[in-house]
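User: I would dearly like some help making sense of a protein record. This is the protein in question:
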Amino acid sequence: MNTSIKLIFFFSLSLMAACGYHLRGSVALPAELKNMYLFGVSGDLNREMTAMLRAADGKIATSPNDAGIVVKVLKEDMRQRVLSIGQTGKSSEIELDYYLRFQFYDNQENPLLEEQTIELSREFFNDQTAILAKEAEEVTIRKEMYRQAARMLMFRAQAAVETHKR
């Protein structure tokens, strides 16, 4: 019985590996993206990019000349907007907007793609009776937005490198 369960488990793993399945957040990077230089990136986005590169056996380059690709952030902004106000006059619904405009360069400062933008938006209820819980929820939502932006940036960098190779 125990052996058959192990066989089914290993057979399932081999099927998932054969179809290209990988865990969320892990990205198979080409060699050019394993050494990336980030210019003008906020601390939150830098932290997510570093974690993503580390998970893919990559790293942040210390200078643009050592990098396979350079990401130059032209504008990055996180905004908070009140969507509705409750009976007490305090906000009951909030929207977070994240805007990122950037461009990819090779290590010779040649642009790889035109300017790119990423815009993300999230709404959440701001329950005034649970202030501490709502602050923690907002922090979690912000982290997830930075993580999603880093993932989108990495996929676009991969497309830029593949387009430039052709």
